[in-house]
Task: structure prediction
Amino acid sequence: MATTQELPKPTALGERQLRGTECVWCAGCLDTATAVDLGVRPDPQCPWASWFPRACPACAAGRS
Result:
């Protein structure tokens, strides 16, 4: 389930949020089975790099 909701800027996120192991909005640890994949995104500061935003179900539901 992808969302078109505006995501936080990658520069404002921690390493775990960039890797998709924590929610991009609340920074809570994500369960692999329930995490919402928000799609691979290009890093605006490093076009050759990508980041992998994911969200917890509660945050994703509130923003979709």
In short: Residues 57-63 form the longest helix (7 residues). The longest strand covers residues 36-37. The chain is about 20% helix and 10% strand. Strands lie at 36-37, 41-42, 50-51, 54-55.
